[in-house]
Amino acid sequence: MNKFFDANKDVWDDKVDVHKDSEFYNVKGFMKGESTLDPIELEELGDVSGKSLLHLQCHFGLDTMCWERLGADVVGVDFSGEAIDLARSIAKEANLNAKFVQANIYDLREHLDQKFDIVFTSGGVIMWLNDLEKWGEIIDHFLKPGGVFYIREFHSFAAIFNDETEEPILKVRYPYFHGSEPMTYVSDTTYTDSKKKMDAKRAYEWNHSISRIINSLTRVGLRIEFFNEFPFTTYKALTFLEENDEGRWVLPEGKEFVPFMFSLKATKR
Ligand SMILES: C[S@@+](CC[C@H](N)C(=O)[O-])C[C@H]1O[C@@H](n2cnc3c(N)ncnc32)[C@H](O)[C@@H]1O
Which of 26, 43, 145, 221 has CA atoms 20 to 30 A from the CA of 93? Predict the structure, then answer.
């Protein structure tokens, strides 16, 4: 498995330089006090003040630090050294106390000895993980009794459609159920508006079915409080998606045919 993680870490290290100046990540806005958190997360996770919060796969930590601005005591984790270095330097410049740990989440128990009120993760995370059963165990390990796990994520069903055709037709191209091998592709661009090119490198992803996601949490005893699905997303996931007045990307004419994102909250008994 290390072969896949090493390759993905390399790709993510390269993305940091591309992302830090993008409008998508809006570091300037963050420095002025704007929030990068999605309105769905703010509403569904609710008040975090006075709570300890672990952010899994935090990239360069803008969301992590936004939770701190809302009163949480935060730790962000990511396996990209470039992302963690940038997160630490932004925290210093913004005068924030967020702690950042560089680690593969699967090894996190060796790097972090703390339990949390909230474990949070969002927006393009689980497709980088091969084993969701272990992921569920890690979430459970880091939660205090009564603690909350929250995820807002891109929907696995929306990931099956052809994302390269301009033709506004939903055509199945990728499997919904992943096999033993990851899906793989080579790219020199990212999902942001940045025109900066990266070296073209190979990445590996796993599309996890919704049942696999839910079962990975219930098998460790977490109680699902809600599971929500949304007919819009946060970026141009398919070439023919259109941006609506709320800045959400939707199917032409706003057709609500596909769940593009989901959210889930679970509690540890
Ligand atoms: C899309 S980004 C993070 C999502 C966040 N919402 C954002 O857009 O900033 C995915 C992150 O997962 C990290 N990542 C991928 N696999 C990982 C792993 N096994 N352990 C820790 N971090 C990982 C990458 O380095 C990357 O920063």
Answer: 43
190 lines ligand 1 (CB under 6 A): no
105 lines ligand 1 (CB under 6 A): yes
Give the chain's domain count: 1
What pLDDT is recorded for position 198?
Answer: 77
124 lines ligand 1 (CB under 6 A): yes
| Long-range contacts, stretch 113-116, CB < 8 angstroms, 24+ apart | 114/52, 114/54, 114/75, 114/142, 115/52, 115/142, 115/143, 115/144, 115/147, 116/52, 116/53, 116/54, 116/75, 116/142, 116/143, 116/144, 116/147
Which pLDDT tens digit goes with each residue over 229-260? 999 999 999 999 999 999 999 999 989 999 99
Domain span holding position 67: 2-267
CB of residue 12 inside a 6 A radius of ligand 1: yes
- Can you give the CATH number for the domain in which 162 is found? 3.40.50.150
- Cα separation, 13 vs 119, in Å, equals 24
> Of 84-93, 151-160, 190-199, where does mean pLDDT reach its minimum?
190-199
Determine the Cα–Cα distance for residues 229 and 46; give it in Å rounded to an integer: 18
Closest CA to ligand 1's atom 1: 124
Owner of token pair 């679970």: 266
Distance CA 149, CA 73 (A): 16
Judged against a pLDDT cut of 80, whether residue 153 lies above it is answered with yes
* pLDDT of amino acid 196: 75
* 42 pLDDT higher than 80: yes
